[in-house]
């Protein structure tokens, strides 16, 4: 049993039933509690949000930070804070193990700090076995919530602050999208924007549909409104986020395609760059390719996850495309946008993968020549169809294939890097270079990194830069 925090419990009278009003009501209450505790402590309460996993989670963390700052917590430089939150990922087993490992070390801090709270949220918390394990073996955790009720964070903080035991609130799924809650962006000039939540694809290896629920698209007018506000606030680049952006809009009252949404976003004045992820090959339309070809704002980069080059394995993966279709798509895209950078995700060692299947993957890698590729060792996720398939591949076989793939991918990336040397191209300046303060670092629209002499006031601006030299995976340039 934990000691109750020493706060004067507020009697809640007219709790609004509508969102987001209800959460703003709880933010006011939380703010009073945080102020009271800060006075006892003699210093502001601090927080640290640690994010695991994908850009979806990174964006969710910005929402958590938005609320924490709104209620009076101050960001700490590390996890020696009064409120530590782990926004977790469970896409591969090693993501889970990292969290358990670090929880032990957080417990050490907590024993020394009577104000400290530990919160866990994100995809891992949607797995009942995980929550059970935390309840049994990590009793010092204060708050657990999932992916569907993250908008309720303010309300959950109030419950946790008032409670002397673990607060747990996990929903199985939701059809709700709550708009207009506070967000604190990590970067002033670029932002992720959710266009949809969840996933309906059920690739047979993947746990995401189980932990993120069914696919829901946001209304286009809400997306456009959010981006307009972001632009007013200094954002020049957005990353549209969804597990399969190519199926955007199918479940809206007035259905709309992703290509149509992009055209609406393109019209937003002051917005300079549009990125998106992830594009599922099965739903990548000719309409989208046409829009990409004609767009002035969509970046020269497409992330197109392959997963496997073997049509046989793709079928068992439930990916709904085959090797030929994938290669055709690549040809079509390159014909429309000749200098586009292509990146991908590949899984090695899916159950039943033979040497021949693996060679098909290598073949696609050699034919497409990706600018870069994320390669993953297949990880068995309990509850997915692949987890119970016969013929799980022995570790040594996977490791050997993985090394071969990685070598191929890296050789090709190295050969492709530098192909823009000599050109003058726009660079969005992101930061002052960490090693050499006379340089700034930014990105080309194809996502390559460029360093060039510049000053901090350039951060967030787009500069024309001559790419003078390529060093490994980045360019050195000078202002044009
Ligand atoms: N929605 C995105 C992927 C999200 S998960 C898409 O469909 O492309 C990011 C990547 O993790 C996937 O592309 C896949 O390559 C990898 N991944 C997912 N489940 C995995 C598993 N069980 N083992 C290994 N890698 C996995
Ligand atoms: Fe997972 Fe497939 Fe959905 Fe991507 S599309 S999140 S790989 S189930
Ligand atoms: Fe991980 Fe969840 Fe993203 S499982 S990859 S954080 S959607």
Description:
The chain has 480 residues and is of the alpha/beta class. It has 3 domains: 18-167, 3-Layer(aba) Sandwich (Rossmann fold), CATH 3.40.50.280; 188-417, Alpha-Beta Horseshoe (pyruvate-formate lyase- activating enzyme); 421-477, OB fold (Dihydrolipoamide Acetyltransferase, E2P), CATH 2.40.50. The chain has 13 helices and 19 strands. Strands 2-1-3-4-5-6 form a 6-stranded parallel β-sheet, with helices on both faces. A 5-stranded mixed barrel has the order 15-16-17-19-18. A 3-stranded parallel β-sheet has the order 7-10-11, sandwiched between helices. Strand 18 (462-471) and strand 19 (474-479) form a beta hairpin. The chain starts with 20 loop residues before the first helix and ends with a strand. The model has no long low-confidence stretch (mean pLDDT 96). The structure holds S-adenosyl-L-homocysteine, iron/sulfur cluster and FE3-S4 cluster.
């Amino acid at each position: 049993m934990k000691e109750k925090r020493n706060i004067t419990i507020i009697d809640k009278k007219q709790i609004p039933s509508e969102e987001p009003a209800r959460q703003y009501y709880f933010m006011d209450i939380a703010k009073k509690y945080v102020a009271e505790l800060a006075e006892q402590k003699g210093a502001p309460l601090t927080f640290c949000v640690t994010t695991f996993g994908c850009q979806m989670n990174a964006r969710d963390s910005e929402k958590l930070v938005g609320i924490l700052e709104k209620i009076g917590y101050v960001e700490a430089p590390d996890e020696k804070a009064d409120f530590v939150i782990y926004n977790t990922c469970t896409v591969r087993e090693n993501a889970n193990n990292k969290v358990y490992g670090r929880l032990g070390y957080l417990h050490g801090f907590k024993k020394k700090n009577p104000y400290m709270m530990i919160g866990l949220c994100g995809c891992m918390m949607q797995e009942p076995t995980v929550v059970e394990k935390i309840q049994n073996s990590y009793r010092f955790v204060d708050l657990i919530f999932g992916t569907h009720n993250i908008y309720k964070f303010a309300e959950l903080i109030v419950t946790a602050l008032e409670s002397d035991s673990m607060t747990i609130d996990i929903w199985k799924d939701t059809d709700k999208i709550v708009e207009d809650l506070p967000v604190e962006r990590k970067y002033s000039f670029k932002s992720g924007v959710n266009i949809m939540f969840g996933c309906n694809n059920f690739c047979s290896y993947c746990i995401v549909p189980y932990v993120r629920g069914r696919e829901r698209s946001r209304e286009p007018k809400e997306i456009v409104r959010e981006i307009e506000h972001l632009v007013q606030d200094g954002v020049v680049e957005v990353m549209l986020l969804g597990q399969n952006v190519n199926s955007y809009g199918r479940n809206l009252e007035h259905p709309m395609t992703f290509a149509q949404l992009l055209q609406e976003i393109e019209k937003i004045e002051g917005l300079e760059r549009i990125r998106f992820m992830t594009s599922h090959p099965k739903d990548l339309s000719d309409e989208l390719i046409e829009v990409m070809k004609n767009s002035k704002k969509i970046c020269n980069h497409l992330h197109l996850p392959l997963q496997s080059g073997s049509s046989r394995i793709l079928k068992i993966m439930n990916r709904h495309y085959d090797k030929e279709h994938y290669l055709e798509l690549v040809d079509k895209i390159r014909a429309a946008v000749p200098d586009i950078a292509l990146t991908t995700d590949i899984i090695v060692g899916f159950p039943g993968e033979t040497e021949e299947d693996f060679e098909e993957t290598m073949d696609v890698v050699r034919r497409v020549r990706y600018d870069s590729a994320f390669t993953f060792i297949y990880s068995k996720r309990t509850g997915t169809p692949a987890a119970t398939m016969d013929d799980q591949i022995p570790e040594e076989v996977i490791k050997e294939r993985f090394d071969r793939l990685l070598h191929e991918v890296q050789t090709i990336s190295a050969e492709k890097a530098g192909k823009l040397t000599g050109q003058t191209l726009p660079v969005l300046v992101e930061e002052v270079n960490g090693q050499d303060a006379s340089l700034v670092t930014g990105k080309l629209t194809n996502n390559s990194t460029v360093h060039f002499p510049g000053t901090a006031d350039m951060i967030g601006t787009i500069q024309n830069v001559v790419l003078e030299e390529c060093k490994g995976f980045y360019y050195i340039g000078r202002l044009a």
